[in-house]
Amino acid sequence: MLIKKYLIFFAIILVLITLVSIISNPDVDRGVILWFDDGLKNTFDVAYPMMREQGYVGMVSVITDCVGGVFEDEEYRDKPCMNLEELKTLKQEGWEIVSHSKTHPYLNETSRDQAEDEIIGSKRWINDNLGISTKVFVYPYSVFAHQDIVRENYEFARVTDRDLWDGKNNSIPIVYIKDGGTWKADYWLKKVKEEGGYAVFLLHSIVDSPEGSWENTPEEFQGLLSNISTYNLPVVTLSEVSEKSSKQPKKLESFPIDMLMDFIEFIRKFSEQILQKLADLLEVLQL
User: How many CB atoms lie within 10 A of CB 94?
Assistant: First the structure.
């Protein structure tokens, strides 16, 4: 009987912990940022109409010298980019336009003068042509170089394998939507819904025939939008988050590598099995 009482007590504790973890705190800010790198034309032609139907806005990292032209992506193919009028349309619709350099170079291979031209020149172009004094810089190819120039001219910076940071020890996790990664997107949507805070979903090309991990089909992207809608999470821009004077962005842990995420999934399934066995045992003891 003593064992039975301990098992029942243990089961009650587990239930209480689960309930506490799934109850959302309405006083905590939460949301999702949909962020498109490179300023590609399919962002305007494909993603923008799909998001507009849901009332969602996004962010675009623009390679300013490629506006109205083509981004010569060395990994896949030459990719058409949005023109100035299309960027102006997105701005008017509430999208945020930020800097991704002038030509998308490897900054570690540039001189300081070249880096200044790339980093500061792109910001100047956005200001002159769109009337935006952007506070955000996205490092090309995730090469972390000439950080001092970035910090002197921007408030936020981003690479693809680290959190978004603002120099104040706040961070926002970056989430990648790749082949087979749908459950990871759901993991972060659920986490933001339950705990608050913000998650960035990083996207590039939305095309019918993806050629690599940085490209997604319209069907995959629609699935993400549907998931966001299901969790009833607001889709915001970084400016909306940073302009909240009452609170700083809630810090969530960094987005783990795939192996760690797989381990988390294993633990989740293992815990479900243990709870089921515990329930079966309790049922037997009651007989």
Answer: 14
pLDDT band at 194 (very low <50, low <70, confident <90, very high): confident
- In whole angstroms, give the CA distance from residue 12 to residue 193: 24
Residue-wise pLDDT for 27-73, tens only, equals 457 888 999 999 999 999 999 999 999 999 999 999 999 999 999 87
CA 170 to mean position of chain CA atoms: 15
State pLDDT tens for residues 129-171: 999 999 999 999 888 899 999 999 998 888 765 555 544 445 5
Which are the contacts of 61, defined by CB distance < 8 A and separation ≥ 6? Answer: 35, 36, 37, 38, 39, 98, 99, 100, 136, 138
Secondary structure, 3-state, 128-183? HHHCCCCCEEECHHHCCCCHHHHHHHCCEEECCCCCEECCCCCEECEEECCCCCHH
Cα distances (angstroms) measured from residue 168 to each of 30, 90, 151, 249, 250: 19, 29, 12, 10, 12
Which of 21, 32, 13, 6 is closest to 232 using CA atoms?
32
CA 212 to chain centroid: 18
Question: Going from the N-terminus, what domains does the chain have, and what CATH number goes with each?
Answer: 28-275 (3.20.20.370)
